[in-house]
Amino acid sequence: MLFSVAIVVSLIVISACTKEGPAGPAGKDGTNGEDGINGTDGTAVCGTCHDNSETVETKIGQWANSFHATSGLQFENGTTCAPCHTSQGFKEVLLTDSTGVVASPENPSNINCYTCHKIHDTYTGADWALRKTEASPSWLAQNTFDFGKGNLCAQCHQPRISYQVPDVTQPDAIYTVTSTRFAPHYGGQSSTLTGTAYYLVGTGYNNSSHINIENTCVTCHMASAMGYDAGGHTFRIYNEAEGEINTAGCEPCHTADEAITNVEELQADVTLLLEELGTLLEAAGIYNPAGTGGYAVKGDYPNKVAGAYWNFISVKYDLSLGVHNPKFVEKVLENSIASLQ
Q1: How far apart are CA 149 and CA 282, in angstroms?
Q2: Which of 96, 131, 166 is the C-terminal boundary of a domain?
Q3: Are residue 196 and residue 207 in the same domain, yes or no?
Q4: Packing angle between helix 256-284 and helix 303-318, nearest 10 degrees?
Q5: Boundary (domain end) residue, out of 113, 131, 149
Q6: pLDDT digits over 69-96, tens only?
């Protein structure tokens, strides 16, 4: 107990001895330093693109009505499909200069802003730049095309390399069709525009002046938009909401009325030619118009039959019914019909 009392007394004494006295006089101020530099506005970089012009919003709205956005084909993400069916695959093959990806994208996405533009690469106005504008050879025909800005489109809108075009120099040699999906595949518009990667039987071929349009695909398919229904980033020519063609891309060369008349007459003629050729191909046994997993009938056929079928499907899958290259399309169908008669 005495020991405890001693400790308490000691603490009281120490506390009393260490009590602070009154403050001394204020010290002299130091030398003023230099002012700091103002920082960058945190929104300045974003505002390069995301300003109040609503440009981004408009483009997104148009794109949302495009086939690129609504096709739902990104599930086709196999190593040879992903380069055109997924955004990730498209960007990869541009870097590797290949026709296939190393591995299927794990979370594949539709073709979108990041696919075609260098979005958020630098966070500057350069992000609007296209990922590809240089000319390059087509995968199948090996011809080099230069569509300007349309080279980006042609990267995918070309025939696939799964099948070779039948040999036109040996019309009676045998071509073995091993798949009901035998064809240049969908979206081979660049070959129609250039008149290549077709079975060029007969003579008299000429390309239309459409091949000389500056920036080709972009000029026509991305002409002044009609709301979110055609033109711009919808890439659509036909305005389904209004039931009319967007002639904005035609009018530098044609009047609106002239363009509409030309398209209607051409497509009617090409439709009849396709029907006539389809009948001949069905009679030859290679074409099954009721097919669901593909229209071809497996088997061995003369090159002239397989070649005529190739031309038939090429025009059918081009989807323009001749508009991309009127002179060439009509002639290739006429010559294909003649070769089977």
Answers
A1: 40
A2: 131
A3: yes
A4: 150
A5: 131
A6: 998 888 899 999 999 999 999 999 999 9
